[in-house]
Amino acid sequence: MHSERSQVPLERDYLSCGAIYQSLSSEDLQAFHQYLKRTSDIDLQDPEEHSQRTSDIEFQTKMTIKATNGATVTLPCEATDAKDVMWIKRTQQGKNNLIYLGGHTFGSTDDFVYSNGNLAIAELGELHQGLYITTSLQQFQDNSVATAYNVICDESCRYINYTVDYGSTIILPVDYSLRNESDKVKWSTDSFYGDITETGNKGKYNLQQNGNLLIRHVDDNDNCIFHCKLYDSIIYYSVTVKSEPVYR
Question: The organism sits in which domain of life (predicted)?
């Protein structure tokens, strides 16, 4: 049973990692410290040192995801090593829940599925709404910006809808429940004819090994429907590109 967590206000587009750290329950904090002991040389006996190394991290919200009730929503993580992934959920009540860290789950695991670092909500409902934050432990220690997803359950959605800032780099994920490892994934869009082709690590598109599609520097041409084609299924993603920040 998790103890009560303090409420931390959300200011503009950013969340302080120090505030999240301070609001974790005693159980989550203990687990986090144990993980740090195994993977870093941080002196956990010196709270000021640890606070100084973590309080300046900013979590920038990169996109809003809307989907209908019961949909499978996969939140991608950019970290390459799943054992280095951390997921935190910030509820609408302002509580921060550590739900995944270094291959270990915390709290109820019935609602979430983890695959290659990605976090999937098997059947989206109102209780799943909130801000999901992902980073790697290395980013956490290096005061880097992490990725956050504002998840909203919306019955009017026909597709899984992404709202992103102009110029962002985003990842469209493969639905874990539909894909077998042997399936070849193809991506296309209704903005041009034919499948999306690989453009390498510095180009517009990057087809990742797990089947996800990475899109760099989204612009007006990406304001469209993307199709993820598997053997006998197609997943549709509607991308809306905003010229102004999503959160004010």
Answer: Eukaryota
